[in-house]
Design brief:
heterodimer; A: alpha+beta; Immunoglobulin-like; 5-stranded mixed beta sheet; 4-stranded mixed beta sheet; 15% strand; B: mainly alpha; Cytochrome C Oxidase, Chain A; 2 domains; 62% helix; binds protoporphyrin IX containing FE; binds copper (II) ion
Chain lengths: 344, 613
């Protein structure tokens, strides 16, 4: 239905345009105009400039206000609040420039449309003006750069020592997550050890691997710094958590990282958005093949105590795939069974 | 020049219209090829906009064209969606806006505006076009092969583009893409060398660099950027070819795909991105600068005012040229690159916004107190400035690395570069065609149709690209086949439909232009000698300039190209060929002193006969 209305509107607009230009051709013919330079089309176009300016500003403001809650994604991380502030400050500064320059751009043509009676002002240059409008933008931009640098350096800081470390791996076309287990240390991996079951290529010569676990969803504690270790197995992917303002490419052969602190649990966000089915999501933002648009993983943020409880309950990867005990060197088997919590 | 007509006709159809060495013919060949590609690239965007705007639509009616790429349920194949996006980007950036815009107008205007008989080497110039043609043929064929054309995005990041097992488009399609691009780059380099030598060596008497129209300055700097940056893309492509065919590992490392661990170790996909964007960012200015040059000329002419700040305009373009080489990594803030590098590139990126801002203010001041004639070319130029503002300002968001974390690879980027690069340059191209059509074909295009074309396209472009900002701020990733998989992105369906409808209308409006273009070519009103009352010297040639451009001696140039509405002068324009000795009533004090030099210019030896006529 909306589609139909829009088509109709566009059709009408074109019809009006055609009619306008036809009409004034007629007028010109009747008046016997000879000089194209001062023709009516000049007036029509000049007027349309102003019409366009006003209409588009009205639409712009109306839509931006009406849809604000839709496009302004609620934020759920500490640094996200500061990057959002930077975003909106940039919006204010560029917005002012946008409004002033666009108004002038359409107003001048209307105001100074051709007239036989007038002569344009011969005004080839003015060094003072040029300096002013080099220096003023330079100052404004310097401000934005400084502000940006402060925020950027803070966001990119190494995570504190006690951060929760979680590994996320992208592959065609899904994500896998791995937690370090009770020893809080991720085991080593090697891509040559990857097979249909051992998707991470976990290396069982490394004792840190024994208690690692791999749940279906990404679970995070509220209020604690987390450091995500990001990698990819086949092609580039990109780890994107829209509500947390987190994005980092997943690169085969070059692990990357992103540290942040979630500030709202899934439950809290459900209350805030008034949507009982709300879920945080992980998406891929680097083209990776036919399934690029479907690389979704649910992210769950818990209260810290709840998170610890959940963490303690997880079964190790090894205990779920006991066949891989055979890959453990014989002198570590016992340790592995203890750490992985496998009954003798 | 007076060959017998018969003789010429018989043996020259091929040399006159096909393997021509005349810069005007070559320019038209570029233009026609560019228009052809614009239609293909535009049509592709309509198909994928249908998918995005109307996800439930049955696309069965496209089966005759797309064959197996329409699934049995009447949907677009997701991999072919990516192929369309990739080819659309490649075609628009390289074939339409680099070859079609720069190729057309550099070729057409450089000799005509600097006062030369032709390009420095007509033969290399001809080769340049035919390499472009060859490249076009290869790229065109790649669209129809069974495994589909290249599909990894126009930036062809490996490993996706290096591994045929990652997607079918990375097989033969990618090979053809690389071959086509190598031919394309050869074409650009041949053209660029020619433009630069011609501008440096073949200017007519009196045409010093300080009297060059801004169009020529922009073509000159564009050619320099191209010459310095395109070879880097060749290097990047070459290493990619090695990785694809000889098992090297420049870009590949630790890859497990399709149940198999590849032997390559130690390569870096990031290396490719650095090499690609070392061309990629300058490329956006290769596309944009000629458009800005064309607009400067048209806005000054139709405001009947000198361009404000001629020197400042040149300095800004020089600044943009230099800076465009040192901002490339702003496309890579979140690739895992060292954050310190991110800080440096943020600083440099925001510096490049300053010369861009200066240009905008200068355009506005040129309009101020003008006596503005709305030719279709002028309308499109004003439209260009509007897009340049809208799209340039969003660059300030993206250039700030902390904001780019969220916006990178979302629709916000799509909105940004389509306005600032895509639409602005496209409008520059249209403005150029409307303005110089009379010189190309000796006839006028219909201006009423031009106005209708302008208003539909202008409103259409904003309706297509402005809404994408909202979608981008909401976080929608680009290059997504559909958004229904995610709760966060499963909205704005109405807005997406509106965008698609606007895209269709805008695309259809281009047929008004096409009709006008081809109809006027044969049936248009005969053009007067100087239809826009312009100062530059191409308007002193015959209505349809023949080979060699000026029948007699090439005119001498005495003044800069922007003496519009000079106080004291009877007319509101003074051609560059009018000596100061004839305009005593309007000369500025320092110009009276130049009268003494006029005799010298007239006595200068004319060296053009070495060109071989
Ligand atoms: C003036 C002419 C400009 C052109 C032609 C242009 C063109 C482009 C293009 C084509 C892209 C898309 C890259 C992709 O496929 O991902 C892009 C992205 C970008 N542009 Fe511009 N741009 C211009 C001005 C600016 C300005 C003034 C700035 C900053 C002050 C800027 C900053 C950026 C940044 C940072 C990105 C990367 C965004 C991302 O990948 O997330 N651009 N630009
Ligand atoms: Cu992806
Ligand atoms: Cu760039």
């Amino acid at each position: 239905m909306t589609g139909f209305v829009i088509v109709l509107a566009l059709f009408l607009i074109s019809a009006i345009l055609v009619a306008l230009f036809r009409l004034h051709t007629l007028v010109e013919v009747i008046r016997g105009k000879k000089d194209e330079r001062s023709g009516n089309s000049n007036k029509v176009n000049a007027a349309l400039m102003v019409v366009f300016l006003v209409t588009s500003f009205v639409l712009l403001i109306w839509y931006s206000v009406k849809e604000f809650d839709n496009y302004n994604l609620p934020v759920a991380s500490e640094h996200g609040v500061t990057t959002d502030q930077l975003f909106w400050w940039t919006m204010v500064i560029t917005g002012v420039v946008f409004i002033i320059t666009q108004i002038l751009l359409f107003w001048f043509p209307f105001k100074y449309q051709f007239s036989e009676k007038r002569k344009a002002l011969f005004y080839p240059d003015n060094t003072k003006l040029e300096i002013i409008w080099t220096v003023v933008p330079a100052i404004a931009l310097a401000g934005l750069v400084l502000y940006g640098l402060l925020v950027w350096n803070k966001v990119m800081q190494p995570a504190p020592k006690d951060a929760e470390v979680i590994e996320v791996m992208g592959y065609q076309f899904a994500w896998k997550v791995r937690y370090p287990g009770k020893d809080k240390e991720l085991g080593g991996y090697d891509y040559r050890l990857i097979d249909a079951v051992n998707a991470f290529g976990m290396n069982f010569n490394d004792r840190a691997s024994f208690d690692d676990f791999s749940p279906r969803e990404l679970h995070l504690p509220k209020g604690r710094p987390v450091e995500i270790k990001i990698r990819a197995r086949d092609v580039l992917h990109s780890f994107y958590l829209p509500h947390f303002r987190v994005k980092m490419d997943a690169v085969p052969g070059m692990p990357t990282r992103f540290a942040f602190t979630p500030t709202k649990t899934t439950e809290e966000m459900r209350a805030e958005t008034g949507n009982p089915d709300f879920n945080y999501e992980l998406a891929c933002t680097e083209i990776c093949g036919r399934g690029h648009f479907s690389m979704r993983l649910i992210v769950v943020v818990h209260e810290p105590e709840e998170y610890d409880k959940w963490y303690a309950e997880q079964e190790s990867w090894l205990s779920k795939n006991p066949d891989y005990l055979s890959k453990v060197p014989s002198d570590m088997k016992e340790l592995a069974m203890v750490k992985a919590n496998i009954a003798q | 020049m007076d060959h017998s007509h018969d003789h010429e006709h018989k043996e020259t159809f091929i040399t006159k219209y096909v393997f021509s060495q005349d810069h005007k013919t070559i320019a038209k060949q570029y233009l026609i090829t560019g228009i052809f590609w614009a239609l293909i690239g535009g049509a592709m965007s309509i198909i994928f906009r249908l998918q995005l705007g109307f996800p439930d639509m049955n696309l069965e009616f496209l089966r005759p064209i797309l064959g197996g790429w329409i699934t049995p349920t009447g949907k677009l194949d997701p991999e072919f969606y990516l192929a369309l996006v990739t080819m659309h980007g490649t075609i628009m950036v390289f074939f339409v806006l680099t070859a079609g815009l720069s190729g057309t107008f550099s070729n057409f205007l450089i000799p005509l505006q600097i006062g030369a008989r032709d390009m420095a080497s007509g033969f290399l110039n001809m080769l340049s076009y035919w390499f472009f043609f060859l490249s076009s043929v290869v790229m065109f064929i790649s669209i129809f092969i069974p495994t589909g054309p290249a599909s990894g995005g126009w930036v062809i990041y490996p490993p996706l583009s290096a591994l045929p097992q990652a997607m079918s488009g990375s097989g033969l399609g990618m090979t053809l893409w690389l071959v086509a691009m190598v031919f394309f780059i050869v074409s650009i380099l041949l053209g660029g060398v020619n433009y630069i030598t011609t501008i440096i060596n073949l200017r007519t008497r009196g045409m010093s660099f300080s009297k060059l129209p801004l169009t020529i300055w922009s073509f000159f700097l564009t050619a320099i950027i191209g010459l310095l940056s395109f070879p880097v893309l060749v290097a990047a492509a070459l290493l990619l070819i090695f990785d694809r065919t000889f098992g090297t590992s420049f870009y590949l490392s630790e890859i497990f795909i399709n149940g198999e661990a590849l032997p390559q170790m130690g390569g870096s996909p990031i290396l490719f991105q650095h090499l690609f964007w070392f061309l990629g960012h300058p490329e956006v200015y290769i596309v944009l600068l000629p458009a800005l040059g064309i607009t400067s000329e048209i806005i000054a002419t139709n405001s009947r005012k000198p361009i404000f700040g001629y020197k400042a305009m040149i300095i800004s373009m020089l600044g943009i040229t230099v800076l465009s080489f040192i901002v490339w990594a702003h496309h890579m803030f979140v690739t895992g690159m060292n954050p310190f590098l991110g800080s440096i590139f943020m600083l440099l990126t925001l510096i490049i916004a300053i010369p861009s801002a200066v240009k905008v203010f200068n355009y506005l001041t040129t309009l101020w107190k003008g006596n503005i004639v709305f030719t279709p070319a002028m309308m499109f130029s004003i439209g260009l400035v509007s897009f340049f503002i809208s799209g340039g300002l969003t660059g300030i968001f993206l250039g700030n690395s902390a904001i780019d974390i969220q916006l990178h690879d979302t629709y916000f980027v799509v909105a940004h570069f389509h306005l600032v690069m895509g639409s602005a340059s496209f409008f520059g191209m249209l403005a150029g065609v409307y303005h110089w059509f009379p010189k190309m074909f000796g006839r006028m295009m219909d201006s009423k149709l031009g106005y209708i074309h302008f208003w539909l396209t202008f409103a259409g472009v904003y309706l297509v690209f402005f809404p994408l900002h909202y979608i981008g701020i909401a976080g929608f990733p680009r290059r997504y086949y559909s958004f229904t998989n995610f709760d966060a992105f499963n909205m704005f369906t109405d807005l997406n439909s509106l965008v698609s409808i606007a895209a269709i209308v805008t695309f259809c409006a281009q047929f008004i232009f096409l009709f006008n273009f081809f109809y006027s070519m044969f049936r248009g009103k005969k053009a007067p000698a100087n239809p826009w009352r312009s100062n530059t010297i191409e308007w002193t040639t015959p209505r349809v300039p023949g080979h060699g451009n000026w029948p007699g001696e090439i005119p001498i140039v005495y003044r800069w190209p922007y003496d519009y509405s000079k106080p004291g002068a009877a007319e509101d324009f003074i051609l560059q060929t009018v000596p100061f000795s004839e305009t005593k009533e309007s000369n500025l004090p320092h110009e009276n002193e130049l009268i003494a030099e006029e005799e010298e210019l007239k006595n200068m030896k004319v060296e053009e006969e070495s060109h071989g006529h």
